[in-house]
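<instruction>
Derive structure tokens from the sequence
<data>
Labelled lines for chain and fold:
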Amino acid sequence: MTAVRALNADLLSRFATIVGERYAVTDPLEQQAYLVEQRDLWHGRTPLVLRPGSTEEVAAILKLANETRTVIIPQGGNTGLVGGQVPDESGSQIILSLKRLDRIREVDATSNTMTCEAGVVLVNAQQAADAADRLFPLSLGAEGSCTIGGNLSSNAGGTGALAYGIARDLVVGLEVVLADGRILRGLNKLKKDNTGYDLKNLFVGAEGTLGVITAAVLKLFPKPRARERAFVGLSSPEAALTLLNLTKEHAGGAVTGFEFMPRIGLEFVLTHAPGTRDPLGGTHPWYVLIELSSVARTGLREVMEELLGAALESGLIEDATIADSLDQGVAFWRLRELLAEVQRFEGGSIKHDVSVPVNAVPELVARGVAAGEKLIPGCRPVPFGHLGDGNVHFNFSQPLGADKDAFLDRWEELNEVIHAIVAEFGGSISAEHGIGQLKREGLRKVKDPVAYDLMRTLKRTLDPNGILNPGKVL
């Protein structure tokens, strides 16, 4: 399954001709943005970056690549965190950038769908939905630069997953170019279609290893008319879990965000992000950000006030504040969204993107903190994330004064410790970031053997020459 054809000048010229010289990037300086991922963990080399402007050009590229056994690395906004979008260092892999496929082909408010090409930046998709008085709920920290194709290929999660689901749940239809250049045209808007296998789910989350997504029909929702956000201080993850259940009892389907974070994470943000401030007067061991949304224009504030009043009266929470304005609500979210980014100012950070059943989150946190501190004395655990769907970004910052490289050298060792605990709960070692290069070996260890074998069979069937993103996922 390994592509073996060397990339001689004639072959590179044939590829470049498909997109035109202007969109065939060979200058090393211009290529840099495509060769290094944002955490600087992986670096690659390529003789050519191709920037096609249509699905037909993508199809021509893959047809030629398959015939000549040339490796193709699909890439969206290059915001992935597991190295799935970066070529290796051999210099024999061509990058296929989908950024020029950036048209929003249709917004259909009646059917609550939107058809976007793969290169559409996520925030632009959100804004197009908003202009049609609709909501596209996928929301990520990198939404200003990540693309729809990359979001779907990695099956992105984000802060809206609690109420609306992850990327896979937001897809109605797909257009995909297969490894041999054939185009799978599945851009239907049907809610009901029982004509055989649901092929689109083969490609969502496949990280470009089975085909290249070029366009998608996405689900839209009625735009909320009211939003309420509260920042809450409490004593423990156990209290946060109880608060989650109480919030659901009071607000039901109006709960669109429920994020948790430790005091140390908030302190990192307050220290390193200018313009931020602590929403509460005192300090608390843990914090929760609650968001309620409703299509009704009135009544939501009362629901939030009743919820927090009940929680305070019972001693479940220690303090809370409700945003009095849109700007204050945005500021609450900014504290949460900056958590991962500011950790770099504290030195090395070993990261985990895991999920467990929601009721197991407190025990995961307790056991994970204890195990991490035992393995690396002085390390600073910073577990945070989407409590409502069991997704914990279980990060560890280096001990104060420690050598960064020596700390990061223990990445795999610490991963094994945390992933072993996750496995006991029947959890996942990749909740929303994908597998890429980072977790490829880990996947082989934890995946059900039959499921893993089926994945390999699908890869051999759809990409028999191994040209699509080899060395990723499997």
User: Anything to note?
Assistant: The mean pLDDT is 94. DSSP finds 17 helices and 19 strands in the chain. The CA atoms of residues 379 and 398 lie 5 Å apart.
